[in-house]
Write a structure and sequence with these properties.
alpha+beta; Immunoglobulin-like; globular; 513 residues
Length: 513
Amino acid sequence: MKPLFIFLFTIHFSLLTIHSSFSQEPEWVDPVYRTSLFPAAKFLVGFRSESFAKGDDPEPIVSRLVKIAKTNLVEQIRVTIKSTATFNLENLNSESLEHFRQASTSQAEASLTGLKTETYVNKKKGEAYAIAWLNISDLISSCKANLKDKELRISQQLKLATDLAASGDLANALSAYQECYPMLREMENDIALLISIGKEQEGSQSTSLEFQVNAGINNLRKGRVLSFDEVCYFLVDGLKQQIQGTTLDGFITMGAFTYQESSMGSRFASRLQATLEQKMTQAGFNLRSEEAGRQALKEGAVVYILSGTYWDEGQDLKIIANIRRINDGANISSMEEYVTKNWLESNGISFLPENYLLAIARQKEFIETPVVNDDLDVSIWTNRGADNPFFHDGDTMYIYMQVNKPCYVRLIYYLADGIRTLLADNFQINTENVNKAIRYRTPFVCAEPFGSETLQIMAQTQPFQPLVTMNADGYEIISEDVGGIMENFRGMKSTTSPLLKVEKRIDLTTVSR
């Protein structure tokens, strides 16, 4: 039994205003007034609250709630971007479609300029609150200004690279071209942000500028086709050159490489990650495990991640690799290279997940049945992280979870062949385990069938309604499809007290060795 595209956004921290219980409770604490104060058409809003015991210091709780409220706001944008990438691309015009497809390759961060936060502590009730909000019109203005600035800077960089090449300084010309990639990633993120809030960006030069960069590099190499080993070498070398002279005040973890705008990996992605890890070590980068990175982040250390995507470009696959700082999402360096499909075919390596069509259909079902996350928050990860983790045949997967309030948890695993397994139902997390990492009691061993799979967690403050299941080899197989599972979750009604609920998913890839 076996056990999205992602964007992160740099958040400009505002001064933390903490209201004491002696001041009047702000209106935004009440969900009805919060909606009227921050209408969805004009604002993006993240909100969280948490109880605390008498005598506890609320300051650490408030700080944590501010971070969660900001994350909640960003998550709304992520979900919208992923939904657009997976389901709604046909609604965009051809120019915006190309921009968006390029944007979905990037994991660099765009700035959410103008993000504000406020907090309130009611000591009598033993409750702390935090809200983060962003005026959509400010976000639009910021994105458009950033696009103009990057277009100018890349154009200047292209002229420098052309002049260096003409003078025979090919090494510096190559570096000048490569320094355009991080700026292209930032442009793509701004375009994705605009599209995610319904503002298509017309007339951006990102695609044209990227073409000029790649053409210039190809010219310097005189059109020579690189081997897969050379592709990986030049990706790592380019990343290293861009950060030359900059001290990375922390270590790097190895993230996932996924296919296009999906959150799916493949045998090719597994091979790419392994080879890049080897090249990174040879280049002198300080690589550590994802678990080491998670622990370091808890301790306030600086951690970086190497991850990216690969794109079907006719006879080639375009690989985009990025190094970013996890703490604030800042993009440090970015590179692009191409590998021929002939190489993949001659080595019997597939660049698509083995169950690609089935996995895409499943993703669309999730998008068609959304759940609005409430004041309840949940995190889920595996022993290989939460960012599109890879598991090979025979590997063991452990599942971890964390919640911010007492609740009941349901865990569902969607296998590569479409089978839906109920791992846990009405797993109760009590007050003493709130905000603590909990490892699920049963580990899982990776086995056939292989492909793109999904681990889903649902949490709510009252017990779940039962699902229709049947027992097979000791496991509970769910009879309902995704729509039925989600309808069961959404259909729960509270008769006595407010019902809080939240749902999150991890996409992961399983492959043969």
